[in-house]
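Sync notes, pocket subgroup
Present: LS, DG
LS reminded everyone that the earlier model was apo-only. Rerun requested with uracil included. Inputs:
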Amino acid sequence: MSNYVPGEGRGENGLVLVGEAPGAHEDRIGRPFVGPSGDLLDEFLAEAGIHRSEVYITNVVKYQPPMNDIKKIGMMGLSLEECEKELWTEINAIKPNCILALGNTALKAVSGKDGIQKWRGSVILGKDAKTKVIGTIHPAALLHGEGEGSGGAMNFSARVYIQHDFKRAVSLGRFFEFYQGHQTLSVDIEVIRAIPVCIGLAFHPNHGVSVPLLDVFSLQNKTGIV
Ligand code: URA
């Protein structure tokens, strides 16, 4: 049997990253994502403006599977069902603002959704019907050139998707960390000649978001108004 590799990192209301299972490096060192996939993970986190010490990193399965094949965990007397239960005990203790699921195994374990290519990048709900989840292609797909990311030009687009999804998860996590406990929301709707063109939302006097409802320039071109 391989070694138990526990989750590690910052707890309580942060960002949780969930991978599939430890590989040989993780098994030897006893920490998640410390091999070549870990180097990529650190790179994507840095590009998203966060360090791995600021997030919690774990895996669905806590032991390196035989031949690195998750379908073979039965040979170690484990089942995905049990592993998911343990994962959710971990998640419930942390109460993350956002979970970034790395690859389809993690996506399925945390959200019940199947198909990373279809669901990646979208904000979806966890199996507990309250935790926000973003899925992305597993960074290891860039190393193997097969499966989720799939080699060559696909590798390039997979890298761009992963960068995008990491940034999205980090900013979503930060947004909820920052605004947690804020009770008041100010809303401002901008209109031009009674046509709503933009809606502004703010939880704080110095921060807000503006959501355009209309492309004002094409409205102007098409109608001459504005
Ligand atoms: N290392 C891990 O800890 N998890 C993975 O999913 C891949 C590599």
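DG: The chain has two domains: 15-177, 180-223.
LS: The CA atoms of residues 73 and 79 lie 7 Å apart.
Action: DG to write up.
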